[in-house]
């Protein structure tokens, strides 16, 4: 059996290692350059590879192709593979049959990284032998090849779910759905929503789907479609006989005749959206039979996720916050919503079809100045130009942070929450966040 892998990054190389171990003839093809450390791994493992090209003769003889999630379906090579009837799948689909571990799969437009990290923290603190992978950390396939985890918590993007056919998590979580990545879904929101719900398509009566019952897109989908999985909702506004909710400043979780409660004041994460992430993660922990005392302790000591509302420093009584992971409007909505002081907002980057009007009421209420950090800021300026008193354009992070310092007074906040992808001025959102933190430390 010949396995061809498109993309020589973390998921590609991980799949190559698992494929080789399982007896496939493996070939890795990357249209860009393969990083040195990954190249070394391929060479050590005797895996054939090429870079900066796709040699069709070496690709079209595949029995199965694993496509890295960053490669769009409309790429010519992928279109040709589909025309030839060669299966094109994701790393998750390829790897899952090779493990008997319990899989928790977490997707959503926002909150999925925090929910994934918190869930992993809860299970690991309880002594479970649990791996963390998918869209973050080490490749899922690589972990299956190397380690023997009894369970995995996987963060799953819509791109990864597009490439699944038989994959089925025992516990699926959909944190929320809002328009994102529409450039990859023919600018059709329904296509994107359907991609997220692929997480539950193979689930049975023995499996669980946890979801945000306050989310319009999720509720509408569940009204029109069915899943065999047992539904467990969580909400900030409703209460349930079975599900998770907030009542009198307490988080209450009722699952299978058991009740768990905890004061929200004792939960380390702040903000309404993080209460939802905590409810989702705690519901998973309850389903996995984790002790209540362990859950309470883990919720109170969780450190949060880098680049997500990360408090960097307070300088001259001005708080600098790194929310570089906010790559869409909905994520920035959560960030602005949790600001309690006058805010200088650093925004901009590669726009993926954003509607900034959703932020209008928050900007009027909380934002005193906007710093545009992107190659093309026209849309942001058009929407907010008449709403804030001060609007500045900069083309590097150091200028953005220095300008932020100039525009603030004691008690203010400087918030980097770009609402956009980072690929115009930065390598990725991590690079953008790290440059912000460095610039703050140099003030």
TrEMBL record:
Q: Give the family from UniProt.
A: Belongs to the MurCDEF family.
Q: Which UniProt keywords apply?
A: ATP-binding, Cell cycle, Cell division, Cell shape, Cell wall biogenesis/degradation, Cytoplasm, Ligase, Nucleotide-binding, Peptidoglycan synthesis
PANTHER family according to UniProt: UDP-N-ACETYLMURAMOYLALANINE--D-GLUTAMATE LIGASE
InterPro entries registered for this protein in UniProt: Mur-like_cat_sf, Mur_ligase_C, Mur_ligase_C_dom_sf, Mur_ligase_cen, MurD
Domain named Mur ligase C-terminal: which ranges?
307-420
Q: What is the lineage of its organism?
A: Bacteria, Pseudomonadati, Bacteroidota, Flavobacteriia, Flavobacteriales
Its Gene Ontology biological processes? cell division; cell wall organization; peptidoglycan biosynthetic process; regulation of cell shape
Species of origin reads Flavobacterium micromati
Q: What does this protein do?
A: Cell wall formation. Catalyzes the addition of glutamate to the nucleotide precursor UDP-N-acetylmuramoyl-L-alanine (UMA).
Cite the Mur ligase central domain residue spans from the record.
106-284
What's the protein here called? UDP-N-acetylmuramoylalanine--D-glutamate ligase
Q: One Pfam family, short name please? A: Mur_ligase_M
Q: Quick one: which pathway?
A: Cell wall biogenesis; peptidoglycan biosynthesis
One CC-aspect GO term: cytoplasm
EC number(s) from the headed UniProt entry: 6.3.2.9
One of the record's GO molecular function terms: UDP-N-acetylmuramoylalanine-D-glutamate ligase activity
Which top EC class is named for this enzyme in its record? Answer: ligase
Aminoacyl-tRNA synthetase recorded as keyword: no
Q: Where in the cell is it found?
A: Cytoplasm
């Amino acid at each position: 059996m010949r396995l061809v892998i498109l993309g020589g990054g973390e998921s590609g190389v991980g799949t190559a290692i698992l494929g080789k171990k399982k007896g496939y003839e493996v070939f890795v093809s990357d249209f860009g350059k393969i990083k040195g450390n990954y190249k070394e791994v391929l060479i050590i493992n005797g895996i054939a590879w090429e870079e900066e090209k796709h040699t069709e003769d070496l690709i079209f003889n595949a029995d199965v192709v694993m496509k890295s999630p960053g490669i769009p379906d409309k790429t010519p090579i992928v279109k040709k593979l589909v025309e030839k009837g060669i299966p094109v799948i994701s790393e998750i689909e390829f790897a899952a049959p090779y493990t008997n571990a319990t899989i928790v799969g977490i997707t959503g437009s926002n909150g999925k990284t925090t929910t994934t990290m918190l869930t992993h923290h809860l299970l690991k603190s309880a002594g479970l032998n649990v791996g963390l992978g998918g869209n973050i950390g080490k490749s899922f396939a690589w972990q299956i090849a190397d380690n023997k985890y009894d369970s995995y918590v996987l963060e799953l993007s819509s791109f990864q779910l597009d490439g699944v056919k038989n994959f089925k998590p025992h516990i699926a979580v959909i944190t929320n759905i809002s328009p994102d990545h529409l450039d990859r879904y023919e600018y059709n929101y329904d296509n994107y929503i359907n991609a997220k719900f692929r997480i539950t398509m193979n689930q049975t009566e023995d499996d669980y789907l946890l979801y945000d019952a306050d989310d319009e897109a999720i509720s509408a989908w569940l009204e029109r479609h069915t899943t065999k999985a047992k539904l467990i909702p969580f909400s900030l506004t409703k209460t349930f006989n079975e599900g998770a909710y907030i009542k009198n400043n307490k988080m209450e979780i009722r699952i299978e005749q058991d009740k768990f409660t905890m004061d929200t004041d004792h939960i380390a994460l702040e903000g309404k959206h993080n209460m939802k992430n905590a409810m989702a993660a705690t519901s998973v922990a309850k389903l996995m039979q984790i002790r209540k005392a362990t859950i309470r302790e883990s919720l109170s000591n969780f450190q949060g996720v880098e680049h997500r509302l990360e408090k960097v420093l307070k300088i001259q009584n001005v708080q600098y916050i790194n929310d570089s992971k906010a790559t869409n409007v909905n994520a920035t909505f959560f960030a602005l919503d949790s600001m309690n002081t006058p805010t200088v907002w650093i925004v901009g980057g590669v726009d993926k079809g954003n509607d900034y009007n959703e932020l209008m009421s928050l900007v009027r209420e909380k934002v005193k100045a906007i710093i545009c950090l992107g190659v093309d800021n026209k849309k942001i300026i058009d929407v907010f130009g008449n709403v804030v008193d001060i609007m500045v354009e900069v083309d590097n992070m150091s200028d953005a942070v220095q300008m932020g310092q100039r525009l603030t007074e004691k008690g203010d906040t400087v918030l980097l929450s770009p609402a956009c992808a980072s690929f115009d001025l930065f390598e990725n959102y991590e690079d953008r966040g790290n440059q912000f933190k460095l610039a703050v430390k140099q003030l």
